[in-house]
Design goal:
The protein is α+β, with helices and mostly antiparallel strands and about 140 residues long. Helices cover about 30% and strands about 25% of the residues. It contains 4 helices and 5 strands; from the N terminus they run βααβββαβα. The protein has a 5-stranded mixed beta sheet.
Length: about 140
């Protein structure tokens, strides 16, 4: 049975998911720190197995960032990602009670932009905000 839960997943589950979606794994201490600094996260379970995950990082009042939307390949195309996004957007709407003008960002994986557009996200170039940038 597919269920959604608000929770912090384990480092092992996080690395298992990132590996299954092709992002590789990270040092356990790095992942633990990242998970500890997460504002909010949801996990999707099939019975007791984590099959999807997403989280929000930011300051809760001015800036939010949707991060690490992951669904293992055998569960993709089954609306698991939609469940994750809806769970995160519900929480974002709670944060909007503090500041209705809070900005929520995300970085879509290449080829996944259309998925996020269904939730109202626009590419920055279409929003007159300048291009998103990254520092490696």
């Amino acid at each position: 049975m597919i269920t959604i839960e608000e929770n912090k997943i384990s480092v092992a589950d996080f690395n298992r998911l990132t590996d299954k979606v092709g992002w590789g794994t990270r040092d356990e201490k790095v992942v633990e720190e990242a998970l500890n600094n997460t504002l909010y996260s949801v996990s999707i379970y099939d019975d007791n197995k984590v099959v999807g995950y997403g989280r929000i990082i930011g300051d809760k009042t001015i800036f939010l960032y949707i991060q690490d939307i992951m669904v293992i390949p055998e569960y993709q195309g089954k609306k698991i990602g939609t469940k994750i996004m809806n769970g995160l957007l519900d929480k974002i709407n709670e944060y909007k009670l503090i500041n209705p003008n809070i900005r929520t960002y995300l970085g879509a994986s290449k080829g996944k932009e259309k998925f996020y557009e269904k939730f109202g996200f626009k590419t920055r170039s279409n929003a007159d905000l300048g291009e998103g940038m990254i520092l490696f």
